[in-house]
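Reading a protein record of the kind used here takes little practice once its layout is understood. Each number in the token line that follows is a code from a learned vocabulary of backbone shapes. One such record is shown here in full, so that the layout can be seen directly:
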Amino acid sequence: MSAKIFYDSDADLGVLKGKKIVFLGFGNQGSAQAQNLRESGIPNEDILVANQNDSYAETAKEKGFTVEHDFEKAAKVADVLFLLVPDQVQPRVFNEKFAPHLKPDATIVIASGYNVFYKLLNFVPTQDVVMVAPRMIGSSVRSLYEKGKGFPCFVSVEQDGTSNGHSISLALARAIGATKAGAIASSAKEETMMDLFAEQGLWPNIIMLFREAFSILKEAGCSDEALCYEMWMSKEPAEIFERAAEDGFITQLKHHSTVSQYGQLSGALALDGAAAREHFKHILYNQVLNGDFCKKFSAIEADLEKEGPENPLNELYRKSEETELGQAEKRCMNYV
């Protein structure tokens, strides 16, 4: 199934004229997108950064933006609100500080589908809720814009309270520089599904495969140093993924030796993916789409701010660092 892709010619920046655009958060994405908006012709006086009094606020001021520490005041003037604080704090900050004071026809912009898909944010029916989600780190959103290049981005209208959500979402995508390369029609469900599936299904399996391969090769007599550098510290996997992004997963193999090409292609085709498919289906349907992960994560959210072993994330790091791979990597990093 092919998705609709939108370009500069599909977007009218004029729909943003006279609108007050508020950024909740000025981290990597907030900083990049606010600067891109300004350089796309949005007047600096129409951009406001809502941020607590911290280093991010100071950075925003240094870059010439007006900063408002009072979230209620920022909410009242917002015609467009970019939600660019971390997913786990969005419900508390938005629902308590912004939602009660927003204009009834305001546009709320999300860059992650998580809180909208799981219905954790409070909107009124007359508001627009749109997704403009760069598939790129903030520093690259900025650097690619400065080079006159675009970057991949997902766009969608999750709630069309004013009937103008589509045109506003495309205008914002163009203003941050995304439609130069093409903004892909998506949805909060699709973005969340792919994002969480990768985080809970794909990458854990990759980590597990590296961990077990490391142990097997160490048992066979390979040194920690040789294994760490051969498997990942040489940055060869990073180069492979970069080639895959440019040429495709299969075609990039032609940059490898003939022995490597034959080994990888024949080995991949010989593997039975049935067990992996069942595992992946379980992750998708019994953790992500049914909301089970969201419930479990919400239950531990407050603990993530604690110090030491009471923080479940710290405990996961501790256990991972105790593996053979973790211990070897720690030693080898001292040589870098």
In short: The chain has 15 helices and nine strands. The first strand starts at residue 5 and ends at 6. The beta strands are 5-6, 21-24, 47-50, 66-68, 80-83, 107-110, 128-134, 153-160, 183-185. The two ends are 46 Å apart (CA to CA).
